[in-house]
Structure formats: C-alpha cells, structure tokens
C-alpha cells in the first residue's frame, strides 16, 4: 500500500493540472488565449503517475497534443506555461510553441507534438541515442488511441522492438479518436494487443489511478533500463471535456459523460484518501493552496509583456 | 593530413563517411541496407566492418529512420540517415518538415537536431516515375533545413562533411548517375568548410549559367561546344540551394548581363524561378530576359526515350544559352 503522503502528492499534482486547465478555459473565453486549445481534464492520473516513475533528470517524455498536463507533471512552472499560451515573452517557448507544441527540456519534456503519432519515432531516436551514450535514459512516447492508427507509430514500435530500444509507448485511451469513437476505427479495440505483433509486452492499465500508472510505468522503466526493450501500455481513461474548447460533444452518447465524471481521477483519489483517514480539511487546504498558486501564476503571466516581434527570425539556424 | 586519392564519386562519399565516423564518435550511420550490404549503390561499403554498431541497417520505415534521426540528434548523437531514393523521403516528409525543421526554432535554441540525410535523386535510363524525381525545391522551401547537391567528386566528399559538421538538419542530395561514372583526384583530409557557397566551374563573359546537381555536366558540355561558336558561358554551380549563394549569382550576372538557370527538376515551382525573382528584385540590368531550363510540366516516364524528352538535354541547354546571347 503506498504511503498516504505519496497519494496526497499525486492528488496535489493532478489538482494543479485540473486547476490550470480550468483557468485556461476561462482565459480562452475572455479571449486572452486564442486559437484551438485541447484540454486534458480527466486524464491527469496518467501524467502524474508516469512522471512519478521517471527520472526526469535523464529520462525524456514526448507527449502528443493535449500536453499541458504532461508539461506540468514534468515540473514546468504554471506561470511559464500560462505565459506561453498567452503569447508572452516569458512563455516557456517564448510564444513559439503555444498550446499544442510545447517543449520544456529542462524538465525532461522534449516536445509535445501536434502531429498525431509523430513523436513516437522521435522518442525511439532518443532511446537509440541512449544505447550509445551510456546515460541509461528511457524515452516515453505518449499519444492517444487515435494515434495507434498512424504509420509512424507502427514504424516506431517495430524499430524500437527490433533494436530493443528503451522506449515506453503509452497510449492514453480516452475512447475517442478526436470526435469519433475509437471502437468504430479499429477491429480490435484492445489496443495493447498490438504489442505482441512487434514482440514486446503489452498491457492495459487503469489510467484513472495514478498509483496504478506509476507502478506499470516503473516496471516498464526497469525493463527498458535493463536492456530488455520497449513496452506498450494502454492506459484507460476518459475525457471529461470536449476534444477542443467549444466542442459540444454531440457525438457522446447520453450517460457517457456522467460515467466519465463519476470515474475521474481527482474525486476518486480524494474519496480514497478520506477512506484512509485523511481529514476533509486537509484536502480543502490542498485545494485552496493549488487554487492560489494557479491564480497567482495566471495573473503574473497576464501582466507580462507580449513576445517581442523583433525576435521572430531568431533561432532558425545554429 | 591531407592526401589525394583517385576515387569514384561513390568512393568519395564513402571516404567522407569514414572520416566522419572516425573523427566524430557521436556520428551514427543508418538506413535501409547500408550496413551489412554496404548500400544498394555500394556507397557505404566496409563501414559496418570498420565502425561496428554505429553503422546499422533499419527496417523499410522512413518515418522511423528520419524520426529516429531527429530524436537521436536531440540527444547528442550526429545521425547520418540514408534515404535510398529521394522519392522515398515523401513517405516521411513530416519528420523533416514538421519535426526536424522546427526543433531549434520552437525551443529557442535549447534543442537542436543536427542530423544529415543522405539521399540520391534524378532520372537514369530505365527508372520509373517513382524513382526519377528531383525534389530539391521541396526541401529548399522549408526554413530550418539546409540543402546541397554535390555534383563533383570533390564536392561529394567536402559537402557531405560540411553537412555532418553542421549543427542544423541538412539534406545532401547525391545522384546515382555519378556514383560509378569514372574516377577523379580527390583531396581528402582538408579543413571542413562551413555550409554554403557556389563554385565557378567555367569562367565566361557572355552569359551566367547557374546550375546544380548532375545536370551541370550537360551544362558544361554545352558550354564547351558553344565556346567553338564564340560564346563564353560562365557556369556557376550553386551546390547549396539553401542557403543559396545569391551574392555569387548577382556578381556573375553583373558582369555578363545574362542569366540562364538550368536544373533537372520541374521548372514550375522550382528553385530556378526563385533565382530569377531574386535577380529581378536586385534590379540588375539584363541584356535579355532571363531563362529557366528544367523538366516540363509532366511526370517522368519509364521508357528511356520518353524520359530523355523530358530531362533537359545538352542540345536544349546549348540552344537556350545561344538564344539568350544572340537575343
């Protein structure tokens, strides 16, 4: 049984991501954030659990879009992330990345990808480098269920398997391939079963339980570091929001969203902690602390100067 | 220590790869059939034996090859990835255009992807439409990428080393008709030059003919013939189409007052149009309208006779130069 303190840390990290996304929703409504924004509400347990199993001083995470949660779970400061979404000079990528193409390598986050599945071969490349540099690095490629139908993902899995590269392929299966049920897009909806075709282990895990994710990823990390090669994990979760802000989700059958809300990881872990004897007041205090942190980060980012257009040509070439 | 050897173009590429692998322990060489088989054109022969695991064969998976190169380059390796035919790069263009070209810019220089893609392109007798294209304009259009087309044995050696030493993603486009078409003296072991810079292949006063890639050999043949008619064409090898050495082009055109651009790629949307636009924007006074020579707007057919009607011939080039000078 994990320590209560570890579970409280999971809860705080998940709550930070959720509060961040709620504030992004507000800033999108006011027009301070513009453009297409894909939120990760409901999927926080995957990011928090996986990052808890990685050594981000050497391991490398390659998420696909819906990446705010990954970036925060890796430890990037909410202020720098808000600033990025707001096009501020203080943004974590100086306004060049935006919501769907973030990177924060100083925190082990090597680039969200807004091309579905394209990060998988790049993660394999990071793992390939590790087989030569003695770093012991493990690369984690995270992508949605829809990306499992991208050629690049198949190529990356085969390449990683045949070379026994230290990669973890982590599918965030939220049941929707953008706006279409994944079950309508595949004949076999147990996506982890594809692992056997490439000669690597595959498993379906509870993606709404950060501790279950942490344990599965930790085992995959051990395996990868030992030289045994890649693993495919299918973390089952749900979105409790649309594919993008403004998505009315007419495609979701009635009851689907209610079920997702009932199973979402933050309420679930809070209930678990209460059952373990943690006081409601402690959870309330955690919630208030995170809310203050996010409100402060957002306000500071809003007050920051916008990115300077005179720098727009910089950093194209070495 | 610099030394001179009598090498084929393919052997010159091989020598550059050998030097890169020897001098840059972070260099990796991989692609389809490059290791044990030594490459389908024999270009990478012997390197696996000499450098072991740093030279390896990959599945037929261009996305994995190029994406793997991007990821490995981000983490301190210096990957040299071979795409067997330039046409196959289109299978994984995402990894070059959306990924490699963005890495440095979007991260404000905190990440980079110093990878080299070696490929070869163009038509040769008997090649089908999916193995005959000239795609440099595709790559040259993308900010963040660098693109060169070595056309001499010495450049096959020098430009590849410049590419591998460069801290940006570079695409080196070779040409299979050159690989085994005779040997030349090649100086090995000299200083590695920074990327960029055109070369004058034949000086002349009457007209500037800018070219690159294998077509330059037809251009030089045409220029040689025309010299007998009293036309002195200056043949300039762009070598790098990104960054293009516009200064060299403008300086030459200032002297000659005439410009012909000749490339094997399609004329429409090609780099030749870009050169003409740049010369026009520079406001250089021309003695006659500038000319582009390239493949007409059609696919490249398989039958050698049909393909020859599409790829600019020495005669077509000579005629265009003559018309330009006599206009």
Automatic annotation (TrEMBL), chain A:
One of its GO terms (molecular function) is pyruvate dehydrogenase (acetyl-transferring) activity. Residues 13-309 form the Dehydrogenase E1 component domain. Signal peptide: none annotated. InterPro entries: DH_E1 (IPR001017), PDH_E1_Alpha_Subunit (IPR050642), THDP-binding (IPR029061). SUPFAM superfamilies: Thiamin diphosphate-binding fold (THDP-binding). Keywords: Oxidoreductase, Pyruvate, Thiamine pyrophosphate. It is an enzyme of class 1 (oxidoreductase). It comes from the Bacteria. Its EC number is 1.2.4.1. Its cofactor is thiamine diphosphate. This is Pyruvate dehydrogenase E1 component alpha subunit.
Automatic annotation (TrEMBL), chain B:
Its cofactor is thiamine diphosphate. Its EC number is 1.2.4.1. It comes from Amycolatopsis viridis. Pfam families: Transket_pyr (PF02779), Transketolase_C (PF02780). This is Pyruvate dehydrogenase E1 component beta subunit. It comes from the Bacteria. Residues 7-181 form the Transketolase-like pyrimidine-binding domain. InterPro entries: THDP-binding, Transketo_C/PFOR_II, Transketolase-like_Pyr-bd, Transketolase_C. Keywords: Oxidoreductase, Pyruvate, Thiamine pyrophosphate. One of its GO terms (molecular function) is pyruvate dehydrogenase (acetyl-transferring) activity.
């Amino acid at each position: 049984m994990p320590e209560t303190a570890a579970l409280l840390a999971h809860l705080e990290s998940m709550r930070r991501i959720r509060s961040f996304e709620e504030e992004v929703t507000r800033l999108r409504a006011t027009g301070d954030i513009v453009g297409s924004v894909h939120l990760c509400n409901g999927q926080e347990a995957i990011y928090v659990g996986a990052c808890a199993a990685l050594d981000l001083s050497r391991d490398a995470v390659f998420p696909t879009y819906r990446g705010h949660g990954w970036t925060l779970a890796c430890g990037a400061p909410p202020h720098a992330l808000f600033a990025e979404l707001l096009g501020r000079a203080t943004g974590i990528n100086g306004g060049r990345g935006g919501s769907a193409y973030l990177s924060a390598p100083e925190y082990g986050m090597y680039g969200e990808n807004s091309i579905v599945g394209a990060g998988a071969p790049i993660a394999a490349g990071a793992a390939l480098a590790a087989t030569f540099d003695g770093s012991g690095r493990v690369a984690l490629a995270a992508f949605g269920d829809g990306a499992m139908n991208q050629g690049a993902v198949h190529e990356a899995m085969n390449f990683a398997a045949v070379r026994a590269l230290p990669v973890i392929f982590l599918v965030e299966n939220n049941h929707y391939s953008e706006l279409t049920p994944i079950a309508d897009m595949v004949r076999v909806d147990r996506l982890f079963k594809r692992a056997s075709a490439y000669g690597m282990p595959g498993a379906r895990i509870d993606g709404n339980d950060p501790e279950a994710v942490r344990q599965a990823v930790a085992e995959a990390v051990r395996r990868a570091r030992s030289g045994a090669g890649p693993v495919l994990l299918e973390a089952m979760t749900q979105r409790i929001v649309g594919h993008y802000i403004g998505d009315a989700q007419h495609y979701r059958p009635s009851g689907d969203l209610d079920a997702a809300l009932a199973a979402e990881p933050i309420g679930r872990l809070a209930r678990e902690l209460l059952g373990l004897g943690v006081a409601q007041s402690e959870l309330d205090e955690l919630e208030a602390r995170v809310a203050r942190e996010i409100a402060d980060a957002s306000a500071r980012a809003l007050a920051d100067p916008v990115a300077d257009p005179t720098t727009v040509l910089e950093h194209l070439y070495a | 220590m610099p030394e001179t050897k009598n090498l084929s173009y393919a052997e010159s590429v091989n020598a550059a790869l050998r030097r890169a692998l020897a001098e840059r322990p972070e260099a990796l060489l991989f692609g389809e059939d490059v290791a044990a088989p030594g490459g389908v054109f024999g270009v990478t022969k012997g390197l696996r034996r000499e450098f072991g695991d740093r030279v390896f064969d990959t599945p037929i998976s261009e996305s994995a090859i190029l994406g793997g190169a991007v990821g490995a380059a981000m983490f301190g390796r210096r990957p040299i990835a071979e795409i067997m035919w330039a046409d196959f790069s289109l299978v994984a263009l995402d990894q070059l255009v959306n990924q490699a070209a963005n890495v440095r810019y979007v991260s404000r220089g905190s990440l980079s992807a110093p990878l080299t893609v070696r490929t070869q392109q163009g038509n040769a007798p008997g090649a089908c439409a999916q193995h005959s294209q000239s795609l440099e304009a595709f790559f040259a259009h993308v900010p963040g990428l660098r693109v060169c087309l070595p056309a001499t044995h010495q450049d096959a050696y020098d430009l590849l080393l410049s590419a591998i030493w460069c801290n940006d993603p570079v695409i080196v486009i070779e040409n299979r008709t050159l690989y085994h078409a005779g040997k030349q003296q090649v100086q090995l072991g000299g200083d590695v030059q920074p990327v960029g810079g055109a070369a004058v292949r034949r000086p002349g006063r009457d007209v500037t003919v800018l070219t690159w890639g294998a077509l330059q050999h037809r251009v030089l043949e045409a220029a040689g013939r025309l010299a007998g008619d009293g036309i002195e064409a200056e043949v300039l090898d762009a070598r790098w189409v990104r960054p293009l050495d516009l200064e060299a082009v403008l300086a030459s055109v200032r002297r000659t007052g005439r410009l012909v651009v000749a490339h094997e790629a399609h004329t429409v949307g090609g780099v030749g149009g870009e050169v003409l636009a740049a010369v026009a924007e520079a406001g250089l006074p021309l003695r006659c309208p500038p000319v582009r020579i390239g493949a007409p707007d059609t696919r490249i057919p398989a039958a050698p006779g049909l393909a020859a009607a599409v790829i600019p011939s020495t005669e077509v080039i000579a005629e265009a130069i003559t018309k330009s000078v006599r206009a």
